[in-house]
Amino acid sequence: MAMEAEKTKKEQKQPSEKKQEVVIAIKGLKKSFGEKHVLKNINLEVHRGENVVILGRSGTGKSVTIQCIVGMLKPDGGSVKVFGDEVADMSEKELKALRIKIGFLFQSGALYDSMTVRENLEFPLTRVLKIKDRDEIDRRVEEALDSVGLLEAIDKMPSDLSGGMRKRAGLARTIIVEPQIILYDEPTTGLDPITSREISDLILSIQKKQKTSSIIITHDMECARIASDRVVIMDDGEYIAEGTFDELHKSKEKIVGSYFKDIS
Ligand SMILES: Nc1ncnc2c1ncn2[C@@H]1O[C@H](COP(=O)(O)OP(=O)(O)OP(=O)(O)O)[C@@H](O)[C@H]1O
Ligand SMILES: [Mg+2]
């Protein structure tokens, strides 16, 4: 009987659901460090072209989750599949190939301080994609900088850039290899509200322009509002709520409400 009811429910849902390709599939993910059980049971699917925002208190394991996605950390249990392949089973060579498809924007922006902005952007083209054609390199560097509004800073050193400009340069370096997935770890942290908004708008425009799928970890609710198609809230090693920004905004759940209490 119960199965019957389940089936009917699924059948009823189908017409409104478009068939979507899953690019990241996380099931029952567990990760501990010694006695510290950080990820207890993480379940998440990211569809092609979708921006998923992860909210959660500091130290709940948001960064650990994305490190499992790129194979920098090995899970203790469960499954993390990217484009259908289990990350934990990949060889070093396969991981390298995976990391070309996945752009990773670190919190610090992580530019090389001894290189100009241009050289920072050339690096992934020449070292990772092994592109040798000078014209193609110049064109792609200029295009990437232009799309983050930073073309005029092409010959500057990172130390001459403001925090917001460094973030943009980091973003340009992430998108220059045209990754299919981008993982953003706190892209707006440490920026003023106006610059944060610009970065959030950029994240949205990259999604639209390059059809990327993204996970965006943030504490910035304005960024969540602007950039997300879907939001998940993480607490005590699990995802405890999921929905669109507006759905969660209306939620009566106490923990969910605590994230939205200052939002009009
Ligand atoms: N390589 C590691 N070795 C040991 N412990 C780790 C390691 N990486 C993360 N941890 C621990 O796992 C927990 C979760 O860390 P994580 O960085 O994922 O938190 P977070 O949710 O990203 O927090 P924040 O919002 O502050 O960035 C923390 O207690 C951290 O100390
Ligand atoms: Mg973190």
TrEMBL record:
Signal peptide feature range: none
InterPro entries found in the cross-reference section: AAA+_ATPase, ABC_transporter-like_ATP-bd, ABC_transporter-like_CS, P-loop_NTPase
PROSITE patterns: ABC_TRANSPORTER_1, ABC_TRANSPORTER_2
Pfam family, any one: ABC_tran
Membrane-spanning ranges: none
Domain ABC transporter: 24-261
The keyword Acetylation is annotated on this UniProt entry: no
Gene3D superfamilies in the record: P-loop containing nucleotide triphosphate hydrolases
The UniProt record lists the keyword Calcium: no
Keywords: ATP-binding, Nucleotide-binding, Transport
GO molecular-function terms, A-Z: ATP binding; ATP hydrolysis activity
Domain of life: Bacteria
PANTHER family, alphabetized: PROTEIN TRIGALACTOSYLDIACYLGLYCEROL 3, CHLOROPLASTIC (PTHR43023)
Name of protein: ABC transporter ATP-binding protein
